[in-house]
Amino acid sequence: MKLTCTQENLTRAVGIVARSVGKDASLPVLSNVLLATERGRLKLASTNLELGVTCFVGARVEKEGSLTVPARLLLDYVSNLPSNSVSLEVSGDTLNLECGENHASIKGIPASEFPLIPGTQENPNVVIEGERLAQAIGQVVFAAAKDESRPEIAGVYVQIMDDGEVRMAATDSYRLAERRFKNGVRLTGSPTAAIIPGKALSELHRILGSGAGEVSMAFQDGQVIFSFEDPTLTGGNVEVVSRVVEGRYPDYAQIIPESYLTKVKLNQKEFSTALKATSLFSRADASDLHLAVQEKDQAVSFSAESGQLGKNDSVIPGEVEGGDQKIVFNHRYLLDGLSACGTDEISLCLNSDAAPGALLPTGDASEGYTYIIMPIKS
Amino acid sequence: MKLTCTQENLTRAVGIVARSVGKDASLPVLSNVLLATERGRLKLASTNLELGVTCFVGARVEKEGSLTVPARLLLDYVSNLPSNSVSLEVSGDTLNLECGENHASIKGIPASEFPLIPGTQENPNVVIEGERLAQAIGQVVFAAAKDESRPEIAGVYVQIMDDGEVRMAATDSYRLAERRFKNGVRLTGSPTAAIIPGKALSELHRILGSGAGEVSMAFQDGQVIFSFEDPTLTGGNVEVVSRVVEGRYPDYAQIIPESYLTKVKLNQKEFSTALKATSLFSRADASDLHLAVQEKDQAVSFSAESGQLGKNDSVIPGEVEGGDQKIVFNHRYLLDGLSACGTDEISLCLNSDAAPGALLPTGDASEGYTYIIMPIKS
Asked: What is the DSSP letter of A116?
């Protein structure tokens, strides 16, 4: 392999793939990045056997070839280089890297030992604006179970509906986040539904972070493949491949209440201040936060008490409709939901102290988001 | 105790003192901040028994009193509050804190259990512009020994000379940093010399970070007291008190070469890139980095090799005077010195592969800084 590319493109591309490497000490090649020439471009790839990330960048290829080298070392090395042309040349199991008067030889592992990352995307089921997809993932993925013992709920359930609506839902059985959106979505194949591992979507979210154009999404052969052009890479595109989770996603729709007795409109900033102040006193073990809605006062109070630390009580104004309520929530789940709503005004919706409550964004940017929290029995 | 102050002042003051609390589980009061009224102001104090930080802020005091409360909880609580007036009232061992509709009760420990922080500053030996003092501390303190087994060299040797020059020096016996400065210094008492613990100066550096006016410095009763007004606090001033280290500081002046055979002027940015690129291959155990100065080429090369990772060789141009040199340094010590110089151009000065080398800032901002590194014997 012998080729030249720009330091900026190389650094960006290594940055995209390097975070997705595996940490399996028994298979050291997983902590490497694959470098290979393919159709006149440089291909970079990493995998942890569950998730594969491939990135192509424009390069002047003089000689075909491939090698894998340690991801961290490569990233640290190329990101420190001056903004210039970088030449890469493989000689045996060594990558020779030159940029100006900097000459490195990095020891690698033959590409033949690198696991095959399957699948080039065929017909995408749907094409989604990158920014909308990233926002939707950010609004739901944190609610997926962290524990992998139940792989279904450690995933995000993604449904492509007949009319082109996309629904993404995640729950760890204590809270549930669902986002529905249709704007910025183009149906290009069959409607479908699948569970995508939360970790894969978090990684996609990170890569999309710096902005992407359209992302096409294909479900094929038990996998999901996301493919998009990265605007920060000249002539570069990225593919993220993950297995989908086998199994049946819980029928979460039945958890979402059809109506609410009490609705309170709250200012996001006031809500957040009161919640954080009170959270400091929520017992470390139980995390109980007491909420009281008072229609007469048009206000909501947040309180928590810790035998060791003391207590807090914060009251904020709210437009209350439908009567008083008292309920206990885990303060962390409230904070998560509040951040995910992303609007200046938020509706808190309740039925009783034993029924799930909801946070709903209100206003223009509030398209189709629902965050449900189970109460703590007091 | 009953008083009112602004949320901004309170947050800033708690932020100044809260980081200096102790972590002694057998003496829980050390992880608290003392709140007390004093001469119509609110006094906040923290100590780890080696270092004490006291901060005064303007307050409307209605009733005298005092209490200690957990530093972390207080800081988190007040920094989350809206920008408003905060009222503090002590009732028994509880601090009642009110800001708008936020009401907290924080459990405390009586002020009588809090260790006495000694000393109000009497006659300062010297008054120094805050910014210059902060810069000088930053240039030397990192070179002090981290290991406290030899407390003298875990400290910074500070000398106030007859002519008002301030000299600060630190060494861990592998490298030495010395800063001398006279601009911005006013001698207001007797010249003196003392060893100040590195940790105390690091803490002072952090507090001065956001800008301070003049800092007066007094050595009295085996202690050093720094006193200054904090411009971000309305009517507030800060005192940092530390014991000085007993013992004799090594005669470091004899380590600094009187002259150098070879001098090389290097561009800071090129130097840094070459050094970082090469450092990635320095052996984790030995950290060897090979430097070669070539007068004929007017260049310096940096190289390192690791049996496991590979190798790097970076060459940068330099104005070489006085002949070729080859020497081996620990790459970390070179990087530290390079950052501390703080100028766009830096002189690398060498005598032989067995003699200490020096990094000297050059140009306008280069007043009196010397960084000496011992070579590694190859």
From this structure: P
Cα(A96)–Cα(A89) distance, integer angstroms: 5
Lowest mean pLDDT among A102-111, A258-267, B27-36, B110-119: B110-119
Listed in order, strand segments (DSSP E) in B273-331 are 288-294, 299-306, 310-317, 319-321, 325-330
Residue A378 at interface with chain B, using a CB cutoff of 8 Å: no
| B175 burial type by CB count under 10 A (0-12 exposed, 13-18 middle, 19+ buried) | buried
So what's the pLDDT on residue B231?
81
Q: How buried is residue B127: exposed, middle or buried, by Cβ count under 10 Å (0-12/13-18/19+)?
A: buried
* Domains, chain A, ordered by start: 2-113 (3.10.150.10), 126-253 (3.10.150.10), 256-373 (3.10.150.10)
Phi, psi of A364 (to 5 degrees): -65, -40
Interface predicted TM-score (ipTM) over 0.85? yes
* pLDDT for residue B21: 85
From the candidates A314, A315, A335, which should be mutated to test the interface with B, based on the most B CB atoms within 10 A?
Answer: A314
Per-window interface: B 278-337 vs A, CB < 8 A: 280-281, 308-316
Handedness of CA A341, A342, A347, A348 (dihedral sign): positive
Per-block average pLDDT, block size 10, for chain B (378 residues)?
A: 96 92 85 96 94 94 97 97 97 97 97 86 91 96 94 96 97 97 95 96 91 90 93 84 95 96 97 96 82 98 94 97 97 96 95 97 81 92
What is the strand order of the sheet B369-373 is part of? B192-197, B155-160, B166-171, B175-181, B369-373, B357-362, B345-350, B262-267, B319-321
Q: Which pLDDT does position A212 carry in this prediction?
A: 77
Return the number of CB contacts < 8 Å for A and B: 86
* Chain B residues whose beta carbon lies within 8 Å of the beta carbon of residue A316: 101
Q: B7-18 and B71-80 helices cross at what angle (nearest 10)? A: 150
Quote the tokens at residue B277.
Answer: 């690129």
Render B46-71 in DSSP notation, one character per residue. EE-SSEEEEEEEE-EEEE--EEEEEH
Of the two residues A261 and A27, the one the predictor is more confident about is: A261
B173 CA to chain A: closest CA distance, Å?
Answer: 30
Q: Which of B80, B106, B312 sits opposite A310 (nearest CB)?
A: B106
Per DSSP, B39 falls in state T
Question: Residue A92: CB partners within 8 Å, gap ≥ 6?
Answer: none
φ/ψ of residue A53, rounded to 5: -125, 130
pTM over 0.95: no
Which amino acid, A38?
Answer: E
Nearest CA in chain B to A270: B82
Among A67, A270, A280, most B C-beta atoms within 10 A, so best to mutate, is: A280
Asked if A281's CB is within 8 angstroms of B309's CB, the reply is: no
Question: Out of A76, A105, A312, whose CB is closest to B311?
Answer: A105
What share of chain A has pLDDT > 70, as a percent? Answer: 98
Name the token pair of B28. Answer: 């829980």
Q: What is the dihedral of CA B138, B139, B145, B151, to 10 degrees?
A: -70
The yes-or-no verdict on residue A210 having pLDDT over 70 is no
Q: How confident is the model at residue A232 (pLDDT cuts 50, 70, 90)?
A: confident
| Residue A108 C-alpha, separation from nearest chain B C-alpha, in angstroms | 8
In degrees, rounded to 5, the angle at the alpha carbon of residue B32 between the alpha carbons of residues B131 and B102 is: 95
Q: Per-residue pLDDT tens for A319-330?
A: 999 999 999 999
Look at the block and give the residue holding tokens 């729709």: A253
Q: Cβ B313–A103 below 8 Å, yes or no?
A: yes
The DSSP element (H or E) to which B238 belongs, if any, is strand B237-243
3-state helix, strand, coil in chain A (%, to 5): 20, 45, 35
